[in-house]
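User: Fold this, then the next.

Assistant: Folding the first:
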Amino acid sequence: MNPSERQSAIVEYLGAVGVCMYQDLAKRLGVSEMTVRRDVDKLFNSGDVIKILGGVQTAKASENLYESPVKERLPIRRLEKERIACEAAKQIEPRQTIFLDGGTTSIVLAQHLAEKFEGLTVVTHSAIVCMEFGRELGGKNTVFTLGGQFDPASACFVGPTAEESARRFFVDIAFFSTKGFLPDEGTFESSIGTIRVKQIIAEQAARSILLVDQSKFGQRALCKALDIKQIDKVISDQPENCSAAETSANATRTY
């Protein structure tokens, strides 16, 4: 396969899957990762693809499928996030080990926990979650961060180092937020760098709880992150939105 054929194959494949990591493309095409990166550079220069951390995504997807910077998303639907965070905090027992992802609802939950809880062990890949717990006086809770490459858009640590670190933790409860949620299928994300960390944590957590406001229901993003069978409980600001998830994943709604 010559360079032109490889580049056409990359564009065609991305049209089907939306996003892909360099190493996965290399395996698919039977070439080195450096060869893939050179092909992607040419496609990027011609406007056919968008380069992301560790991979590439299609340039043809609509803007709502892409992740916006976390600082822009924090104020959106703040009241709903507060309600969800308050309910999520009720699921936690003293001295438990929990995981918080870098989504804005998880950040609001971190603010609640840092203020009201002590004795928790918190695992996260979010720099902002770490900072929220860092505001507390006396170090009432223990926080572990997953090291790795820093992704400015999500303010999370991602990549192979973060993924390797995630495999060391087996938490009591993992709290996940999401870009989109289909109750019959699962969660969807646009930030490809954070997806694998979430998948690894979900595989090893005793319980997984999804924090999702009504605006995320029925929405897709570039890639599927968690299967509905991996979600034990759904906490939403709209109870009627949770019924399908309960049927599919035996999840429990709290609103």
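Now the next one, as you asked:
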Amino acid sequence: MKLTAAIVDDVAQARATLKEDLAAYCPDIEIIGEADGVVTGSKLLNKIKPDVVFLDIQLQDGTGFDILEILGDISFQVIFTTASDEFAIKAFKFSAVDYLLKPVDPDELILAVQKISKVNNSTQENYDLLLNTVKEQSAPKRLALHTLEKIHVTEIADIVRCESNGNYTTFYFKDGHKLLVTKTLKEYDQMLSEYQFARVHQSHLINAQQIKEFVKVDGGYLVMRDCSKIPVSLRKKSVVMKLLEDL
């Protein structure tokens, strides 16, 4: 199925290169418009209403985030293109909004377009979460989680633990419900490490704030506030002891 697309980037050569790459690697994408800034981009997107927008962050008269704020109701998918901006990349990961690092790798471009093709419409809550994180310029307090059916936005503090399930991860929450999420435990380990989450076992990532007790017998295991028992691997015992000291 053909998808219509627009490119918003203030560098003409970057737009040209991306068009060439899309023509070569993503033939199902049809470019129907280009713009080089916030004002021109907002007007263009309001007029042509594409299925997907390749949106640069740093523009000549503002940022790609400004365009999303101006438009308000986002009726298209967004793939951000960015140079190495650590804060922005963290915001993308937590809000489950897709991005490509410049210079754009063709394999990453193909994967991003494939993901877009599987989604029927954008999730406004994802963009709201992204914009709030960027606006506050602080560590995200919420996390967007993809399941097979939908995207759930949850408070990080409400997560008790995460358990590996092959290429999926099961999240367990304070209120007793759980979600099977379509990303690996390794990805969440990297994202949540600064929030007092720790990988205490190959298959388990826990929220240290939700530890009830550490039982040293039977190889050692944690009892969480939801009464679940989580094994602690031998090499992670020192990590657990440090966590408990810092609480």
